[in-house]
Amino acid sequence: MAPNSTFAPGPTDGAVFVGGEGARIGGDKALRMLGGRPLLAWVILALAPQVARLGIVARTTEDAASIIAAVMPALPGRIGARLEPWADRPGLEGPVAALFGAADRCMAPYLLTSATDTPFLPADVRARLARALSSQGAAIATITRPTPTIALCQRARLVTLSPRKSLAGTLAPLSPGQSLLSAVEGFNVNTRDDLCEAERLLATNEALTMLNKAR
Question: How many folded domains does the chain comprise?
């Protein structure tokens, strides 16, 4: 792909990975409450306007459907109705299983992904990753912090990869482009202390207060 500063990716499907046990936060990480809504709802509300289809990826489609049912009351009906239950690819573990499970269900040329623990994703995360794809001539672009689960991938290239133990190792053969989020945009909620800090940020950060009202 030749670098092009005006590049915009084609149709994009999205996926949110929710399969982790969340032991450090007390279990059911996707449904931990932040600012009156589940963590997962924050990520859905950020990604849904940026994609054509949005899958919730859990260990099984039954698990995904259960999580969707639990989060639906926190979402506008027009968004909740679009959610699809997707499953990890069998035989794999962790975010690698979720990524390939999403790739198996993706029908668009591009796939935008995130885990459930980055609630303050910006509304233009897809555009930022697309610029990294273009400017760095890459087939995949990831956010360098906090985790490569936030990524925009060319599906046709993604499915050629061989799964490895880690997500970073799996993506490495395609030399992913890199993009950045601010410390707040990329804030990662893994523990109870992180959740308390996220609540503090919501209460004290004017931009997040406006974001909360908008979503």
Answer: 1
Asked whether residue 22 is domain-assigned, the answer is: yes
> Any residues with CB less than 8 A from the CB of 36 and at least 6 apart, and which?
none
Residues 90-134: pLDDT tens digits? 999 999 999 999 999 999 999 999 999 999 999 999 999 999 998
Q: What is the DSSP letter of 30?
A: G
- Nearest of 17, 204, 10, 8 to residue 100 by alpha carbon: 17
In a domain, 120, yes or no: yes
Is the distance from CB of 133 to CB of 123 less than 8 angstroms?
no
Torsion angle (degrees, nearest 10) of CA 157, 100, 13, 45: -140
CATH number at residue 139: 3.90.550.10
Enclosing domain of residue 120 = 12-214
Q: Is residue 3 part of a domain?
A: no
Taking the CB of residue 44, how many other CB atoms lie within 10 A of it?
A: 27
Interval 148-195: pLDDT, tens: 899 999 999 999 999 999 999 999 999 999 998 998 999 999 899 999
Half-sphere exposure of 58 (CA within 13 A, CB side): 19
CA distance readout (Å), 193 to 4, 63, 188: 42, 27, 11
Residue 100: which region, alpha, beta or left (left: phi > 0; alpha: psi -120 to 50)?
Answer: alpha
Write the single-letter amino acid at 198: A
In a domain, 59, yes or no: yes
